[in-house]
Amino acid sequence: MARFVIATVNGEWMNDWFAPDRMDGAAWRPTFVRDGVECDTEQAAGLLAGLIADLDADVVALQEAPSRAAELALFLDTHLAGRYRFLLGDSGGSQKLALLARTAVEAELVPPAGLAGLIEPWLVDVDGDGLVNEYEFTRDPLVCRLTLDGNPLAIVVAHLKSNFINRGEQMWRDPARRIEFVRSALQNRRRIANEGMRMRQYLDARLDEDPDAAIVVLGDFNDGPGRDLFEQQYLAHNVTDLLVGSSYRPETLFGHALVDVPADLRYSAVFDDFVTEEPQKRILLDHIILSPAMAAGAGVRKTPGSGRIEHDAWAARRVGTGERRDERATDHRPATVAVET
């Protein structure tokens, strides 16, 4: 039996670390600015690389990767030399999706021709005006074919639309502009939900073709756990439950790897919520879900009880308070799961 660890890591604006696009390759910025603070690039990049090394995963789904392959190669060559090969998506602007794989893992991108039912624009109503318009992913999911110990595994790396609103707190606290904030918040969540729906349609089609397919979907879903205030009071749904599947087709329900984590530790990010006035609110933005065959089937299957949120590894790569970008590896705790063949 062979065992492999799969991780999801949000790199938190890795693109900040590199000089503007240049024809002769990639170069580090000595410093960068994030949240109005000048930060040390070498320290920030070293903390993230140290966290990835500590996870010791065979496969790493990376969100908020650099915008160019030369930049990601520079990061890996400088800090993780010889450990990983990578695949980089071509969607997402300055926040790309990437997959890092050890040399023992065969990995390739599914070509766009095989993803027509996923990444091509589709018709939806994302602003609640009753009209449908063409919409497309903020960042196309990165769909990869892997071979683990001779067994096929599909991995879908996702970073769904952010629900961030620029100057949102000022809008919320201004009675004259609060409704503007609410409308923007709802539009963002409708976009996230429609991206989740599109992914689920793709997964259903894959399972219709092969009910025994081993598929891992992971990354930053910008959702969860449960329903936030806007989902409770306006939309009556969340996104992760949509991605997991429908109880009307129980044979297609995905399992959530992080149910293995105790409920009080089932979070991957912490922030002050100015809407609900909750300081240090714990939320689970980072997820790993697995196709039904991975519960007990042949081929690649989940190691029972192996889902983890890597709180200790994250804390070990924090300097001081971790408030500055160069005092933390990332603002998301990574999540991991082990699979075996």
Structure explained in plain terms:
This protein starts with a strand and ends with a strand. The chain has nine helices and 19 strands. It has a single domain (3-340), classed as Endonuclease/exonuclease/phosphatase (Deoxyribonuclease I, Chain A), CATH 3.60.10.10. The protein is globular, with a radius of gyration of 20 Å. The chain has 341 residues and is α+β, with helices and mostly antiparallel strands. Strands 1, 4, 5, 6, 17, 18 and 19 form a seven-stranded mixed sheet that branches. A six-stranded mixed sheet has the order 7-10-11-12-16-13. Strands 2-3 form a two-stranded antiparallel sheet. It has helices at 41-55, 69-79, 116-119, 168-173, 178-209, 229-235, 240-244, 293-296, 311-316; strands spanning 3-10, 31-34, 37-40, 59-65, 85-88, 96-101, 106-109, 122-124, 133-135, 142-148, 151-159, 215-220, 255-256, 269-273, 278-283, 286-290, 301-302, 308-309, 335-340.
Concise summary:
By secondary structure, this protein is α+β, with helices and mostly antiparallel strands. The protein is built from nine helices and 19 strands.
SSE topology:
Layout (H helix, E strand, L loop, with lengths): L2 E8 L20 E4 L2 E4 H15 L3 E7 L3 H11 L5 E4 L7 E6 L4 E4 L6 H4 L2 E3 L8 E3 L6 E7 L2 E9 L8 H6 L4 H32 L5 E6 L8 H7 L4 H5 L10 E2 L12 E5 L4 E6 L2 E5 L2 H4 L4 E2 L5 E2 L1 H6 L18 E6 L1
Parallel strand pairs: 1-4, 11-12
Antiparallel strand pairs: 1-19, 2-3, 4-6, 5-6, 7-10, 8-9, 10-11, 12-16, 13-16, 14-15, 17-19, 18-19
Helix pairs in contact: 5-6
